[in-house]
Design brief:
The longest helix has 20 residues. The termini are far apart. By secondary structure, the chain is mainly α. 44% of the residues lie in helices and 7% in strands.
Length: 299
């Protein structure tokens, strides 16, 4: 019999045989269940991904464990996975109603990632989730406030202690977490520049300071005169409030970090309209029309 390699790679064959062969992957039979592997996988990913990403893995893994956790991982098949997805769409919620296709699609993504690592580690012969099909997701159109509606909102929110954050969301198109992470040292009001260095997000009910979403997200953006004026006024009011409370030291954060109020405005999800613009970009355009600011080109 020709020699083989446990990792299933090409091996050199002795003289007198064919030059090279592909050899089958040889696995030790294991009774490990999907649920047990997910526990190990989550532990291995902690510290390797952002806290918000790991939390989403934990939430999704609970869902996977409820439907497939009892299955031996080496015996898991694509048809079992697709049946599991159908069950989630029909009655995946705690109240017996079905989950949205987007949520089930996200479940598919996490399961595929986990089983890809299982394949890499030699626990399974193939990634069954890679062969399974997740549900298709239609990108719904969304509605955004018009310039008049945005003007009404700003008029009502002008006295709010995070009014500056609302304006910055609208006039720059920044993500919620990026706006909440802004510190005064990140802003140069004289040159009209703002450096996006950190983010503040809500991870399982706790505010978490982290890095921007991607490498390209760590950037410098330019502020228009209207936004710069607003920020100067906001900083002046902030200093007055500090003096009134008997505080004399410098303020680091540009504003407090309440995630819930901000999440109701300028949501920066991945939903796209029929013209391919994200919702936060659409709010940016509405704000620019309102303040007569030239719109920025989005890449």
């Amino acid at each position: 019999k020709p020699p083989f390699h446990s990792r299933g790679v090409r091996v050199q064959i002795p003289s007198g045989h064919s030059d090279q062969v592909f050899c089958k992957l040889v696995l030790s039979k294991s009774s490990m269940k999907v649920g047990a592997f997910l526990d190990q996988w989550l532990a291995s990913r902690q510290g390797q991904v952002k806290a918000s990403t790991h939390h989403s893995y934990v939430v999704t893994s609970k869902r996977i464990r409820s439907g497939l956790g009892h299955v031996q991982i080496q015996a898991l098949t694509p048809i079992q996975i697709e049946t599991f997805y159908s069950d989630l769409l029909d009655h995946g919620r705690a109240d017996g109603t079905g989950l949205s296709p987007k949520t089930v699609r996200n479940t598919h993504t996490v399961l595929r990632k986990a089983l890809s690592d299982a394949e890499r580690l030699g626990i399974v012969y193939r990634n069954a989730a890679a062969a399974a099909r997740g549900p298709s997701v239609e990108r719904p159109e969304f509605t955004v406030w018009s310039s008049d509606e945005l003007r009404q909102f700003f008029a009502a929110a002008e006295s709010n202690h995070i009014y500056g954050a609302f304006v910055l969301l609208a006039t720059t198109g920044m993500r919620r977490g990026e706006v909440l992470g802004v510190r005064w040292k990140d802003i140069d009001l004289d040159s009209g520049e703002l450096a996006i260095i950190q983010t503040i997000t809500n991870v399982n009910g706790k505010l978490t300071v982290g890095s921007p979403k991607t490498t390209k997200s760590r950037r410098v953006i330019y502020l228009d005169e209207t936004t710069v004026t607003m920020l100067r006024q906001h900083r002046g009011r902030q200093r007055e409030d500090q003096i009134a409370m008997g505080r004399t030291g410098p303020t680091t954060a540009a504003w407090p970090s309440p995630t819930r109020p901000v999440s109701r405005f300028g949501r920066s999800g991945s939903r796209r309209s029929s013209v391919g613009w994200s919702q936060r970009q659409a709010y940016h355009v509405s704000a620019c029309m309102m303040f007569a600011i030239p719109t920025r080109r989005w890449r």
